[in-house]
């Protein structure tokens, strides 16, 4: 994988992940990553036509879902630590 390909993958995933979050009303959960990955897989496979896009979407989404479920920690301590690291945008008064 070249730097250009890695950059395109990263930009597509970040952009689609944020777009999905915005469409879903700023809801932040694991489904944003799954849908963002599906859109990324479809986008990166667009040269192969609709069937390749569908396969790319399913592959990327399935892999992301598997990783999310396999490495997710159900403990409340992990959830509390994550919430402490979250930040909120605060508008600056000029």
What would you say this structure looks like, in words?
This protein has 94 residues and is mainly alpha-helical. Helix content is 72%, strand content 0%. It has four helices and no strands. The protein has helices at 3-23, 30-44, 50-71, 76-85. It starts with a helix and ends in a 9-residue tail after the last helix.
Main sheet specs? none
Count of DSSP E strands? 0
Q: Calculate the mean pLDDT score and round it.
A: 84
Q: Give the assembly state of these chains.
A: single chain
Describe the global form.
globular
Low-confidence stretches: none
Give the count of helical stretches. 4
Query: Rounded to an integer, what's the Rg over CA atoms?
Result: 16 Å
Query: What portion of the residues fall into strands of 2 or more residues?
Result: under 5%
Compile the SSE list and pairings.
Layout: H1 3-23, H2 30-44, H3 50-71, H4 76-85
Helix pairs in contact: 1-2, 2-3
Features of the shown structure:
94 residues, globular, 0% strand, 72% helix, mainly alpha
Question: What is the compact description of this entry?
Answer:
The protein has 94 residues and is mostly helical.
């Amino acid at each position: 994988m070249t730097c250009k390909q890695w950059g395109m993958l990263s930009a597509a995933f970040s952009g689609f992940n944020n777009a999905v979050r915005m469409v879903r009303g700023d809801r932040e959960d694991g489904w944003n990553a799954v849908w963002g990955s599906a859109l990324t897989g479809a986008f990166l496979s667009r040269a192969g036509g609709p069937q390749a896009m569908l396969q790319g979407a399913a592959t990327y989404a399935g892999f992301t879902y598997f990783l999310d479920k396999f490495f997710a920690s159900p403990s409340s301590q992990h959830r509390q630590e994550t919430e402490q690291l979250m930040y909120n945008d605060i508008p600056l008064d000029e």
